[in-house]
Automatic annotation (TrEMBL):
It comes from Sporomusa acidovorans (strain ATCC 49682 / DSM 3132 / Mol). The gene is yybR_3. It comes from the Bacteria. Pfam families: HxlR (PF01638). The keyword Nucleotide-binding does not apply. This is HTH-type transcriptional regulator YybR. Residues 9-107 form the HTH hxlR-type domain.
């Protein structure tokens, strides 16, 4: 598969959309509720401000999230899932379920090594 297959092959497209290190975590958090930048930073303390900014811009450019700016002082900006991002919620749930199963699987494998 080639990168130029983005937008043609569904697997290449999804892999490219989810390629950011923190993309899944950000989408997971926004699937629970609309959040401000500072809230996202608190939830992911190891994520730098620059990286969070870059990931949010990419997700917005890709149409997965919406950035809403409120015309007030001090400025208020919120992030939420777009309609396409909302359609990703069942995928997030499936990934969580698979991750839970894999964790149990790997624990059982570790026990057999003893």
């Amino acid at each position: 598969m080639r990168e130029e297959d983005f937008g043609i092959c569904p697997y290449v497209t999804v892999q490219k959309l989810l390629s950011g290190k923190w993309t899944l975590i950000i989408l997971f958090l926004l699937a629970k509720k609309t959040m401000r930048f500072s809230e996202l930073q608190r939830e992911i303390p190891r994520l730098t401000q620059a990286t969070l900014t870059k990931q949010l811009r990419t997700l917005e450019k890709d149409g997965l999230i919406i950035r809403t700016v409120y015309n007030q002082i001090p400025p208020k900006v919120e992030y939420s899932l777009s309609d396409m991002g909302e359609k990703f919620k069942p995928v997030i749930k499936s990934l969580k379920d698979w991750g839970d199963e894999y964790i149990m699987f790997s624990k059982k494998r570790d026990c057999t090594k003893l």
